[in-house]
Amino acid sequence: MFLHKRLCAFGLTVLVAATAACSGSTGASRSRDTLVVYTGQAGDFQLNFNPYAPTQIEGPGTIYEPLFFFNIAKDGPPKPMLGTEFGWNADGTELSVTLRDGVTWSDGEKFTAEDVKFTLDMVAKTPAVNKTGFKGTTTAVDDTHVVVKFPEPSYMDGPQVLGQLWIMPEHVWKNYPTPATEVNASPVGTGPFQLGEFKAQSFTLRSNPKYWGGEPAVKQVRYLSLSGNQAGVDALKAGSIDWQTGPIPDIKDVEKNYPGYKAVTLPLNQVALFTCSNAQLGCQGAQTDPAVRRAIYHGMNRTQINSLAFQNTGSEMSPGYTLQPRDSALLSSKLTDRMAPMNADVAKATELLTSAGYVKGADGVFAKDGKPLALTVKVVAGWTDYITALETLSQQLLQIGVKITPQQLSWNEWADARGRGQFELLIDSVEQGPAPDPYYTYSYFFSTATTAPVGQAANPNFSRFSNPVVDAALAELKKTDRGNPARQSHYDTIQVELEKSMPYIPVLTGGVPNEYNDKAFTGWPTKDDLYAFPAVWKRPDASQVYAKLKPAGS
Known about the structure:
One of its GO terms (biological process) is peptide transport. The structure is a single chain. By secondary structure, this protein is an alpha+beta fold. It has three domains: 34-50 and 186-266 and 512-551, Periplasmic binding protein-like II (D-Maltodextrin-Binding Protein, domain 2, 3-Layer(aba) Sandwich), CATH 3.40.190; 64-174, Dipeptide-binding Protein, Domain 1 (Dipeptide-binding Protein, domain 1), CATH 3.90.76.10; 267-511, Dipeptide-binding Protein, domain 3, CATH 3.10.105.10. The protein has 15 helices and 21 strands. The protein has a ten-stranded mixed β-sheet, with helices on both faces. It has a four-stranded antiparallel β-sheet with strand order 4-5-7-6, with helices on one face. Helix 8 runs antiparallel to helix 10 (384-398) and helix 13 (468-479) packs antiparallel against helix 14. It is globular, with a radius of gyration of 23 Å. It starts with 14 loop residues before the first helix and ends with a strand.
């Protein structure tokens, strides 16, 4: 999932000059204690630092902290943040947490267990911000201890509650009656950074001098607005950004082509065509038919897409949505395709559509009840890799009688359509959860509890997928701790159902490429030291990177 941004008010022809204008300095003269990053967001930055809002631009980890940091890049013990210790009771219904003492909010107020209780209560009673399906009841025992009680064994809630809920200041947020829509223009947090200057084309975070972990050596993080992937490439050449996550030409030779920069690419996101799949919840279009979704799945030449759009940085993807190779041991033997085929099967796609009552017209496009099988797929303007993937796919699918038309939107328009279900298809990535376990992907993107009717915000089951068999398997998985061999039968059940329905049509496991200025800053994550997943848009991982970096020579 690469985010992209329009570059001030200029076109690409004046890119380098515009980049310098946006950042307020050139690559050569800017202060070395300022880290300049490009998250890729398209369109002007919209002021929103609410970490629970689907359109927030920053905040998780940098301004607002979780209780612990769970590193999905490698499976190790969680890092204490606002919490220092935690433990379960014998049957997994009660989670006890010890909190860090001596922490203050950025406005000087003391952080206490009441803030944790307030946050967890807010999430539990506000479906629009409760993307984890949290149902616990929280008690503040004293200033540094809380106990969360669950109605049933809930081991798998641990990493979500501890690592994915951002603790908010009660004395501020109790005044906000609708936390899901609060834009939080003046954020008050406990994190290593505070909001500095905000403009539509650029904003800054400045280091928190009273941060409990010590003030970061990076005194300022500047987020730039650019116009897309090509803009990021040119900014790297100009030396005007220090970190971006996104594709660049000939990434194998990054150190030669961009002196001072290095790159690391790791598998994380599962690239897919998101479908608004559920007609009962208001989705409209031929994509609500599972036969159409499966035909598109078989009509893809993934080898060609990987080559033309992703420089062969992608890899095979399972239709059961276990992240490979990380979850290879959990890959179900009951799947028809353990991995999505890398080449198209036109005969299979045609058979699926014909059996479902579609008839090919004189123009070569299938139709049913007089309606051609023509679909619009939304993509963010500037996402050159995804746009190329869709242009390639549109040609491939004509071979199976399906017409798709890419529609480029600003990130804000695209995100709003995604959240409200106002799309037929869109391209995005299914993300991972707070711990290296596919349970979290399933509970986020495939659970009835995390979706909503079209027109209402779904977070993040954007496809509106609802399946009682999957819901029941998720409920059983939630009751058993990681590593329990009894879990596999439930993984099998879920994977088989996902392959049948395909509400998110698998494309590839995306290799996430990161380019960083190794000459100007030290302390970056590497394949030998993956202390956080190295993606500038991955939260809260990016805050771990910001806090560890140091200007070179310091």
